[in-house]
Amino acid sequence: MFILIVGCGRVGSNLARNMLNDNHEVSCLDEDPEAQARLEVGLDQSWEDSGGRFTVGTALETDALDAAGIARADAFIASTDGDNTNIVIAQIAQRRYNVPTVIARILDPLRAEWYSHQGVRTVCPTKVAIEMLGAEVRAAAEKAEGASGAGEAA
Amino acid sequence: MYIIIVGAGKVGWNLARELLEKEHEVTLIEKNRNRYSTVEQELEHNVQYGDASELWVLDRAGVQRADMMIAVTGDDEDNMLICQVAREKYMVKQVIARVNNPRNRPHFDLLGIKPTVSATDLILRLIEHEVPEYGLVHLLDLEEERLEIIEMQITEASNVSDNRVGDLRMPEGSLLISVLRDGRGFVPGPDTVLEPGDEVLAVLDPGKEDELKALFGPDGDSAGG
Asked: What are phi and psi for residue B162, nearest 5 degrees?
């Protein structure tokens, strides 16, 4: 599968390496030329030599998306550090380029939910973090109650 | 009419001020704390602090009962999404978005955000169209943006009358941003055919005016001179 990842921060770069490892064709787009260094963390050769592609450009510029190969992308991942940018470029990928699989990272849970009802596939790390933290706290609370309950019984 | 304006920059602030003077109900939303504090000294409860791309901020501003949403921040993504959410989630009937970078215009079109405007005077015109009794004269300068906006009248004598916009050899650094026809403003596409009576607005880099006038002329101005 040809995967285009826009936004090469911690999430984008690690995802890109994993996908390359899974033998997918991976192209990354980031406005910061230095982002390529993040892709190469842990690799013993350059990102390009490992088979990856890297394009410097702004995601809203369709020239940059074209250069990164969006026309033949099977999957498009919007993982820049801006929710608004991710929502906009995901919709561009979907509506203008008809990319079959489009996924946007949206940190704001309210908007992630609303846009997912509008047909944008969203991943909301904040929501996952809230759920995990909630589960941890509940587990701790249950344990504490169990302990105090046991104390009362004894 | 209840109007929400997002972005208390020069455009948003002045727009809010003018609309309040005309006794509209206005809420201005600004996400920069310092800017908010400055504007709040004058507009008081009519300005709210917050990031209007967050739904709860729009909720708090009463977006459900808003008649119009005007997004004039300096960020095109924000303007696009605020208008998209206002229209599609909150059913706000009229949305107006400012386009900061003309190259982003196709993205606004793609998301169905219309009308879009690149300049204050056009925002004012559109509001004027929405509220016919409302006369607007105050124009704001665009010095900070280093752009000029010029208005040209298409007459029967104009070189470009009955031409497709796509066929015009527009000078580099210039762009047609709107056509006003029969009191309605719209963004021309390549297939738009210019008609006598049209009022055309173009945005251009400083110094391109003569080149553009030569392409479009002769118009009312040059006929007079």
From this structure: 70, 15
Q: Is B56 exposed, middle or buried (0-12, 13-18, 19+ CB in 10 A)?
A: exposed
- Helices B76-88, A83-95: inter-axial angle, 10-degree rounding: 70
Q: What is the DSSP string of B48-117?
A: EES-TTSHHHHHHTTGGG-SEEEE--S-HHHHHHHHHHHHHTT--SEEEEE-SSGGGHHHHHHTT---EE
CA–CA distance, B98 with B60 (Å, rounded to integer): 23
| DSSP label at residue B194 | P
B3, B70 in Cβ contact below 8 A?
yes
Q: What is the pLDDT of residues A88-141, one digit of tens each?
A: 999 999 999 999 999 999 999 999 999 999 889 999 999 999 999 999 999 999
Q: Using CA atoms, how far apart are residues B29 and B4, in angstroms rounded to an integer?
A: 8
B-chain CB neighbours of A102 within 8 Å are none
Q: Phi, psi at residue B164, to the nearest 5°?
A: -75, 140
State the average pLDDT over residues B67-85: 94
Tokens 């599609």 found at:
B88
Confirm if B123 and B70 have CB atoms less than 8 A apart: yes
Predicted confidence (pLDDT) per residue in B136-182, tens digit: 222 333 555 667 777 777 888 888 888 899 888 888 888 888 888 88
How far is the C-alpha of A72 from the C-alpha of A97, rounded, in Å? 9
Query: Are B111 and A60 an interchain contact pair (Cβ–Cβ within 8 Å)?
Result: no
Binary contact (B107, A85; C-beta < 8 A): no
Its pTM surpasses 0.80? no
Residue contact A92–B78, C-beta within 8 A: no
Q: What is the ipTM of this complex?
A: 0.83
Say which residue the tokens 């992630």 belong to.
Answer: A112
pLDDT in tens, A11-65: 999 999 999 999 999 999 999 999 999 999 999 999 999 999 999 999 899 999 9
